[in-house]
Amino acid sequence: MEFKHETVLLHETVDMLNVKPDGIYVDATMGGAGHSKYLLDKLTTGHLYAFDQDQVAHDNAKIKLKKYIEQGSVTLIKDNFRNIKSALSDLGIEKIDGILYDLGVSSPQFDDVGRGFSYRNEAKLDMRMDQSSDLTAFEVVNKYQYSDLVRIFYRYGEEKYSKQIARKIESARKIEPIETTTQLSEVIKSALPQKELKKKGHPAKRIFQSIRIEVNDELGAAEDSIEQAIDLLNIDGRISVITFHSLEDRLTKNIFKEYSTVDVPRGLPFIPDELKPILELVNRKPILASPEELENNNRAHSAKLRVAQKLKEK
């Protein structure tokens, strides 16, 4: 499948890394390789390491980034970004000058009906970003206990009708397995009151999001990876993170806050180095897409970009 992908917050995400032409950079979520290509155009003797666990992304990147691969300025790494530190260490890289994240599922994965990410198209329940992993959406929907379904629907979907939906799923799968996205959507709809069905937006959106996050351990992987990225950064190196829903944004915001906040005694004329925080927020409020981008790229509507710079080692 060809990756047809409109990169979100392209210039903002890369430009705010203050890219050095001879620096070492990481694209932790290569996807359609839009950010990678733009960053590579800024390098001379520098190098980019681009991560993605999806083989389709790699197949397309080998075409899109062919010139840079031949130049030896980019290394493609097929791995989950939660393994970023060990994967780079294996290549002899212990420190980097900048890293970017475009969290969540890429547009091409959503657009590939067979991957089972979309609640609008019929497909087998899958939702794996890494097609070689064992856990699928089918396993979650048909094998998870009621209490576990409620937990992920509340935690990852913030769905107030989690219990009702979990009960409906439990009842439906006793009759026959729930095998497709459309079957699951109908079960979800049947659990909701009419007032909810009349609201704007698809009634299955939050449940599909929660199952996808569970299948791919998205939040756990993101937390692990961002923590490692902060360790990897050189002093003055920067990290850019694009998020697309409140859970991702809250996670990023809290990690950045933890590392950028210190208790300083009152009355100090200046902050000594030992009391300085590890990170400094580059932007206090998240950067949003411009009106022009919003007009041309619907996915950009929910995008938020947070950027931080490293001040000292942990």
UniProtKB/TrEMBL annotation:
GO cellular component: cytoplasm
EC number: 2.1.1.199
Residues given in the record as S-adenosyl-L-methionine binding sites: 33-35, 52, 81, 102, 109
One function term, GO molecular function aspect: rRNA (cytosine-N4-)-methyltransferase activity
Broad EC category: transferase
InterPro entries for the chain: RsmH, SAM-dep_MeTrfase_MraW_recog, SAM-dependent_MTases_sf
Main location class: cytoplasm
UniProt keyword annotations, A-Z: Cytoplasm, Methyltransferase, rRNA processing, S-adenosyl-L-methionine, Transferase
Family of the protein in this entry: Belongs to the methyltransferase superfamily. RsmH family.
General function of this protein: Specifically methylates the N4 position of cytidine in position 1402 (C1402) of 16S rRNA.
Protein name: Ribosomal RNA small subunit methyltransferase H
Name of encoding gene: rsmH
